[in-house]
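Need tokens for this chain, all 304 residues.
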Amino acid sequence: MMNRGGVYQIVNTENGKRYVGSAKCFRTRWRVHKQHLRNGVHHSKHLQRSWDTYKKSAFAFEIIMVCAPVDLLFYEQRAIDVFDSFKAGYNCAPTAGSQLGFRHSEKSRRQMGDKRRGAKQSPEQCAAQSKAQRSRTDVKTYEFRGKRQTMLQWAEELGWQKDVLARRVKELGLERAFTAPHRLKDKNYRTSVQYAGKEWLVTDLAAEHGVSYTRLQRRIRLGWPVEEALKLPKRASYDNRRSKTSARKKAARKYSYAGLTMSITEWAKHLGISRDTLAYRIGWMKWDIGRALSTPAENRGRHA
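Here are the structure tokens for all 304 residues:
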């Protein structure tokens, strides 16, 4: 029987307290328990203290049940719950096969803290951990046009950022992610663009060149080349506060169309279009007056 496996208990015959455990071989496990207790290094400090106090003769090893190896933890947990060996016995944790619920002593915590405090990993250790982490996260491969690689390998080959490529694959599917143009909106209306041989998020590109993210995104959506969108001077009437004199001069300027001549403000009231929309079309977009006035007002939210 001792050569078989199952759930067992180590009982203190003096006070009735017990330690519940499970093993594939009762004989081997009982031998290990006795060796650790004799050497004073048993993981259960409560059982170790009782062993030191009552000596070996006060303890008995008893088999509770024999079961298959796959059922060991299930029946061990049942025995721990029935005998309440965590609160009223020698078990260190309430969960079988886990340290969940186990608390180190204050002395142990201080020793562990002193050992780790100020310890720094070498660059080689950091590189090895980083490589191991990447290997765990990049095990999935993607096949495209007869070639299979991980997401990181595809990103390096295409010169993109890995998170950008992964987001495109998730939202667009594999085929479109690899073949669709770069100017695609992703979450939060952020756009990925190709610039200087590298894939950029518009937010990062704007921060790198010190320009407004909103302005840069609008220019790219309107079809501007990225280089021009970054280098063209900002229009004073939209990028800086205009002086009252400049505003009055622009407001007084007249525009003729379809036999009528009016200022931007008057045209806006006449057509029911926002004055800022008309000013944007004429001043910044450089539309001719006919197109600016005839484009439907439904597009004014996007500055048409």
